[in-house]
Amino acid sequence: MSKTILVTGPDLDPSAAQLVADRGYQTVHTPPYADSAVISDYLQQTGAEGIVSRMGRLDAAVMDAAPQLKVISKHGVGVDNIDIQAAAERGIPVLVATGANAVSVAEHAIALLLAAVKRILPLDAGLRAGRWEKPGFSGHEIAESTMGLMGMGAIAQATGRMAKGLGLHLLGYDPYAPDSAFEELGVTRCETVEDLLAGSDILSLHCPLTEQTRRLLNAESIAQMPKGAYVINTARGGLIDEAALVAAIQSGHLAGAGLDTFASEPPAADHPFFAVPEIVLTPHIGGVTRQAGARVGVDAVRGIFQILDGQPVAPERIINRKLLAAAQAEPAKMEK
Which of 112, 156, 263, 317 is deepest in the core (most CB within 10 A)? Predict the structure, then answer.
């Protein structure tokens, strides 16, 4: 047995690394955004029993190259880089660090919102270039506007709490969230995506990327939003049809956007977003703070050891728990 935890990326908070060392294990890191072949090589060379998934895709081929692999623990909550069905078929639980980075990502969502609406970046650039653009300037006040939350998980709820402090009204859509998630924040629950879009002066995306939600925000859905609305995305870039978003801003239907994620990361040097000054961009770092990094890293590592030790894990942290149950039930059916 190899007492190794593989981290698919260059960083792990020192508190999480110390937890690994205290258990007599070592961490080995892949390069950032390593492809499946490189990750497979690292798994074979190290014999790692657990993975802290940060960057790079973990697919069936990676898992088949590592029969000793017992658990995958996401450094965060987005698992679109992990084939959770393949993991379930191989009896590998996939864990998420639910809520551990919620405050940091929510703060970033609000920062992107304010930067985009208040036109902070072009005004800063103009001033540095010698322009005093106060004459003729007309800004926009966000108080009393309506923010729509697409998804009502921990990050959305944290974003909503902060948005209320800015005087925003809140709408929300999430067919899987209990009524209590809406009621505790005073969020008006929308029964359809269309209702949320039509009522959102600011649309903040907080849903996972699945085949059902891929390009959820496209030309047709954007057209349902009010003229002059803004889009904020701290979730996954694949939720947005990027060409449609650019077209909507250039046509004047949308006023701007604040985006922390891209459909493909890192983006190409000639990505169309870079030519649109109304879009504020950051490199998927909303949850990358010292405080969130410590909480997420420790949660990810602790979950690995809970699985390795046969200890119980909170059901909501096992993102493929239903798929695991189904995969385990199938052989039982065949035996009857």
Answer: 156
- pLDDT, tens only, 168-223: 999 999 999 999 999 999 999 999 999 999 999 999 999 999 999 999 999 999 99
Question: Residues 251-261: pLDDT tens digits?
Answer: 999 999 999 99
Q: Domain count for the chain, please give it.
A: 2
236 noted as active-site residue: yes
Number of CB atoms found within 10 A of residue 164's CB: 15
Whether 214 is catalytic is no
Residues 166 and 29 in one domain: no
- The whole domain housing 44 covers 4-99+290-331
DSSP percent split of the chain into helix, strand, coil, nearest 5: 40, 15, 45
Q: Which residues pair with 58 in a beta bridge?
A: 82
Shared domain check, 48 and 109: no
**Does residue 240 contact residue 217 with C-beta atoms inside 8 Å?**
yes
Catalytic residue among 54, 206, 284, 295: 284
Is the pTM here over 0.90, yes or no? no
Q: Quick check: is 336 in a domain?
A: no
Whether 275 and 170 map to the same domain: the answer is yes
